[in-house]
Design goal:
18 strands, 15% strand, alpha+beta, seven-stranded antiparallel sheet, 19 helices, 631 residues
Length: 631
């Protein structure tokens, strides 16, 4: 993912088509052109002042010929619907009109900030990625806006290029309806645009972009989540991007991986029911991963408004924080921050960071990222002194220190009170629990003594009314045939994800062909589960078991590679389990006891427990032993 969407040009680059508006021109009788902002294949953008108001707007002149009054009226009705939808996380659409040259334009709110695509691209250039908290916060705010949108229409073209982070830390979903109008024209007339080649746009949009349902936005949310969580980003090819979307996600909870997988399913019916379901499921997964989703952003996270109530310990008793009413350094225009000159470098862990404006340095102080003893360099005077000793900051620092100490005192008192209540509650709870246990035990003894003597019942009658059979876990396990060369490729630290995916696909085709060419015992494929007590003749072969396990290779690789990073002598493990007739797994354990409770063992057990195999008619009198060997 680049900083800008394909085909987008900034204010310093000439547009693909000549501009028709100049500084000082009046558009629609209400907007005065200030300057050219940039262009895309679908429109040319201008920054304008709104007459009679102290506000700026963006005018986007569509790069399409005037379609006639009737078609223009229909387009205008669509924009009118979009302009009636208002939400704090949605860029306002102000209306649609015509210039003096019969060019159509859409007026919308101007967001001074940066697109998510640009933020992520800058992070990757610096060798860094977004935290899980940041990804959830961005998408949760987007879901809040989309929930309001879906009451009237569908965005349909949601991408990281039209989700913005404002200088005040607010997430904004932009270009509602405008992007669809431009995209429809590009797809129908030029065979280009987001409906043709964007990896974030739902596949059904390519067939009929004019009739999209909210499920199309769920697909976009899933692909955007995969992009933001990826360390290196997804390829631009739609098919490959979907194929590789879940690679490298073994470090995240299975519930999050399953959520993204369901979103990017080609069938809209298999996607989450609504953006609210997506948001809630993502929130639960993020909390399961140990993320604190509310309160001030931890070091390294984006300074954007949290999407949930403040659940951080430091928020206790802090009622007057204005942490998020700030400007984000480095976002938006390539100009210095309007609050002042970027003249200060802040030293952290022996390294200088910046340059920052005065307000940005104070914002770090108020966020407790630095304190009065932090060394600050003034690039103008070349003086390097403690922040509290610098004349430009002395008054603000002296005013802030008492507030900080009072807040910390309240936090300490709140923690002490919480500990006292927990200890007291535990003691009372223990006494009540003992008393209740004694009463329950006495009642059970009395009840048992008054039971009549049982009458024997033949075993066949005891199970006569049941439509299923009780199946004991297997006593014998057999090893599934595993392609050792393929295993060596998968767990080769030097191999890329694309290379591994190609090898698995190639081996799957090869093995699939061998399987189809044989019949019965002559195929050379071992059937693991023998017998048919469930009433079905379906059996599972080594090939089928390998196929299911290999479809999860990305997650399994994550487990193994995590162990290899800390233990270069690690040679792999053997996983033992059995497959119930329903297709679920049971009895999952690691044969090598020393790894059973290590992270690699715990991780692999979780992955195998979550696997789902085809339903079959086996009794499970033979279980499965699957070796995962590192060569």
């Amino acid at each position: 993912m680049s900083k800008r969407a394909p085909g987008v040009r900034n204010a310093t680059e000439a547009p693909a088509e000549p501009t028709t508006l100049r500084t000082g021109d009046t558009v629609g009788g209400a907007f005065v052109v200030q300057r050219y902002l940039g262009s895309s294949d679908g429109a040319i953008s201008y920054l304008c002042d709104e007459k009679g108001k102290d506000s700026q707007v963006v005018i986007k002149v569509l790069s399409m010929p005037y379609p006639g009054d009737e078609a223009f009226g229909k387009l205008r009705e669509r924009i009118k619907v979009a302009s009636s939808i208002r939400h704090q996380n949605l860029t306002k659409i102000l209306g649609m009109g015509k210039t003096g040259k019969d060019e159509m334009f859409v007026a919308m709110e101007y967001v001074r900030g940066s697109s998510v695509s640009r933020v992520v691209a800058q992070r990757r250039e610096a060798g860094d990625t977004l935290a899980l908290r940041d990804v959830f916060t961005i998408l949760a705010h987007a879901c809040d806006a989309l929930e309001e949108v879906h009451k009237r229409t569908t965005h349909g073209v949601l991408t990281p290029y039209n989700i913005y982070l404002s200088h005040k830390g607010v997430v904004k979903v932009g270009n509602l309806t405008f992007d669809r109008i431009a995209g429809e024209y590009l797809a129908q007339q030029k065979g280009t645009g987001p409906f043709v080649d964007s990896i974030y746009v739902a596949p059904e949009a390519a067939q009929n972009p004019t009739d999209l349902k909210p499920s199309a936005d769920l697909f976009s949310l899933g692909m955007i989540a995969a992009e933001l969580l990826s360390e290196n980003g997804l390829p631009n090819d739609r098919k490959r991007a979907r194929h590789l979307a879940l690679d490298g996600m073994g470090k995240y909870p299975p519930s999050l991986v399953n959520l993204i997988a369901s979103c990017i399913d080609s069938s809209p019916a298999n996607r989450p029911a609504s953006v609210r379901v997506f948001r809630d499921t993502f929130e639960d997964a993020a909390r399961e991963a140990g993320e604190t989703l509310g309160g001030p952003p931890p070091e390294g996270c984006l300074p954007i408004e949290p999407a949930v109530e403040d659940d951080s310990p430091s928020a206790v008793g802090d009622e007057d924080s204005d942490l998020f009413d700030i400007d984000l350094p480095g976002f938006g225009d390539d100009e210095a921050d309007s609050d002042g000159e970027e003249r200060y470098l802040v030293q952290k862990d022996g390294l200088d960071y910046g340059p920052f404006t005065k307000q940005q340095v104070l914002d770090q102080l108020y966020a407790d990222d630095i304190d009065e003893y932090t060394q600050v360099l003034d690039r103008v005077t070349q003086d390097r002194v403690d922040l509290g000793e610098m004349d430009e900051f002395r008054a603000e620092v002296e005013e802030y220190i008492p507030k900080r100490e009072e807040r910390r005192r309240r936090e300490a008192e709140a923690r002490a009170e919480l500990e006292r209540k927990v200890k007291k509650g535990a003691s009372v709870g223990l006494m009540i629990g003992v008393a209740v246990g004694v009463v329950v035990l006495v009642v059970q003894v009395i009840w048992y003594l008054n039971l009549p003597d049982p009458e024997p019942l033949p075993m066949e009658k005891a199970f006569a009314s049941m439509d299923y059979k009780f199946l004991p876990p297997p006593k014998d396990f057999q090893t599934v045939a595993v392609d050792k060369d393929l295993m060596a490729s998968i767990f080769n630290p030097e191999a890329s994800e694309e290379e591994i995916a190609r090898k698995i696909k190639r081996r799957s085709k090869k093995r699939g062909g061998k399987r189809r060419s044989g019949s019965g015992g002559g195929s050379g494929v071992t059937e693991v589960d023998m017998g048919s007590m469930s009433g079905s003749s379906k059996h599972l072969s080594d090939y089928e078991i390998n196929q299911i396990i290999m479809s999860n290779f990305g997650q399994l690789r994550g487990c193994i590679m995590q162990e290899l990073k800390s233990n270069r002598s690690f040679k792999g493990v053997t996983v033992q389990f059995f497959i119930r007739p329903s297709g679920t797994t049971g009895g999952v354990k690691i044969r090598e006891g020393k790894y059973s409770n290590r992270p690699v063992g715990q991780c692999l057990k979780r992955r195998f427990r979550s696997m789902k195999f085809p339903e079959h008619g086996a009794v499970s009198n033979k279980g499965v032993t699957f070796p995962l060997r590192v060569q």
